[in-house]
């Protein structure tokens, strides 16, 4: 079972913070977006473009199920993976940490990162909509919520370690 599972909207820092946290804990890091890309043999942008969002979500649900079953380190999910009801059920009993981010910060951060197909057009209004829709789901799943707006990724990782009393391996 993963030590920690990170959830939250795009730009909350799941991938960046997750990798740092894993490094500090001395455990492996895994990101379900990377797993999906590996299974599909192409980047997420191409999966959305060629096959559509529904196909991406099916690959994502399978990747999350597999990673929850076999990964022992830090696991970062794609921001939309919690839209799937079966995935939410699987997450019960896991140490789920919600990285919270405000709209302004999220817009800034995704603007710096590589393209996310859902946010190519009007990133601000897309992000606002998906954050509003998903907030109750993120909140309902989390055993710990970390507001990240005023923290560097390393500080977020340290806060998770401290709050969950995680020891390095
Ligand atoms: N706490 C933070 N403070 C500032 N920038 C951050 C923070 N967390 C992540 N970032 C930056 O925001 C962008 C998106 O981060 P990423 O880890 O890919 O988020 P997610 O996986 O949640 O979508 C990256 O450029 C990353 O360096
Ligand atoms: O929120 C979403 O629906 C998505 C978030 C992305 O991952 P990040 O949350 O790591 O950006 C990626 O899975 C895909 O572009 C869809
Ligand atoms: Mg990510």
Q: List low-confidence stretches.
A: none
| The CATH homologous superfamily | P-loop containing nucleotide triphosphate hydrolases
Over the alpha carbons, how many angstroms does the gyration radius reach?
15 Å
Domains (count): 1
Number of DSSP E strands: 5
Q: Name the bound molecules.
A: adenosine-5'-diphosphate, shikimate-3-phosphate, magnesium ion
Order of helices and strands: EHEHHHEHEHHEH
User: In what order do the strands lie side by side in the largest sheet?
Assistant: 2-3-1-4-5
- Content-based structural category: alpha/beta
Number of helices: 8
CATH architecture, please? 3-Layer(aba) Sandwich
Largest sheet: 5 strands, parallel
How much is the average pLDDT? 96
Which helices and strands, and how do they pair?
Blueprint: E1 4-7, H1 14-25, E2 29-31, H2 32-40, H3 44-51, H4 53-70, E3 74-76, H5 85-91, E4 96-100, H6 103-112, H7 123-141, E5 144-147, H8 153-164
Parallel strand pairs: 1-3, 1-4, 2-3, 4-5
Shikimate-3-phosphate is lined by residues 10, 14-15, 33, 44, 78-80, 116-118.
Provide a quick synopsis of the model.
With 169 residues, the chain is an alpha/beta fold. The protein has helices at 14-25, 32-40, 44-51, 53-70, 85-91, 103-112, 123-141, 153-164, and strands at 4-7, 29-31, 74-76, 96-100, 144-147.
Any overview of this molecule?
Strands 2-3-1-4-5 form a five-stranded parallel β-sheet, sandwiched between helices. It is an alpha/beta fold and 169 residues long. It has eight helices and five strands, in the order βαβαααβαβααβα. Helix 1 crosses helix 8, helix 3 crosses helix 4 and helix 6 packs across helix 7. The radius of gyration is 15 Å and the shape is globular. It has one domain: Rossmann fold (3-Layer(aba) Sandwich), CATH 3.40.50.300. The two termini are 15 Å apart. The mean pLDDT is 96. The site of magnesium ion has 5 residues, from helix 1. Pathway: Metabolic intermediate biosynthesis; chorismate biosynthesis; chorismate from D-erythrose 4-phosphate and phosphoenolpyruvate: step 5/7. Its main location: cytoplasm. InterPro entries: P-loop_NTPase, Shikimate/glucono_kinase, Shikimate_kinase/TSH1, Shikimate_kinase_CS. Its EC number is 2.7.1.71. It catalyses: shikimate + ATP = 3-phosphoshikimate + ADP + H(+).
